[in-house]
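Notebook entry, structure prediction.
Reason for the run: the old model in the group folder had no record of what sequence produced it. Starting over properly, with the input documented here first.
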Amino acid sequence: MNIQEAYPYLYETHLHTRQGSACAKNSGAQMARACKEYGYTGIFVTDHNWGGNTAVDRDLPWETWVDRYCMGFEEAEAEGKRIGLDVFFGCESGYDGTEFLLYGIDKAWMKNHPQLWTATVEEQYALVHEAGGLVMQAHPFREEAYIPMVRLYPDCVDGVEAVNAAHHLYPEMGRDKRAFDVSAIAYAKEKGLPMSAGSDIHSTSLFGGGTAFRRKLQSPADYVQAIACDEDRVMTDGRVWYDKKGNVIG
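New structure, fully documented this time:
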């Protein structure tokens, strides 16, 4: 059976908006429309927090900062309701270039947890788990100027973003970034960590990456449960398809 017929519900799990991420080019509404047109069932807006390339003034009071940070998501969510695209909240947290994707939390929860601002990787994991959320290490083997070194936290994550479509769309002379995903898949297999895929998309020029399921997800909590229970799914970078264990299937 065709992979996309067997797993028709495709989710973009790693997406940025210009309201929340300084490196993004398009608004939440524009991103939602582009993803709907591409054929995604839903998206997670995972803008950079204060530890990454945020677009929000770090000197703002905590609650005001959270309000501003969520503007991209809220605009995408409103547009998604209008056009029939599920839009879920997420966050990409940063620790000197090492980044994590957080799912299953929301704006109200963030406002009630100002300690996130100074939380260590270990403390972040505990806080998100207390909320019933999920922590996935984003592109763990990526090598770029803003990442001083590869740092791995197998005991402070629930899984690994093993396939990052951005690695496949930006080839450089003499350097194949697909090696980052090869290493991430091998690492996840070694540690027995669930895997996900996302595009790390920053504009409406979509890559087509994401994680696809046999069923439609009902909420962010549903996604958290699906990954935590290692539910049947497939992953793609927009070109190649992988099973949930990171094996190429198409």
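Summary: The domain at 3-243 is CATH 3.20.20.140 (TIM Barrel).
The old model has been moved to the deprecated folder.
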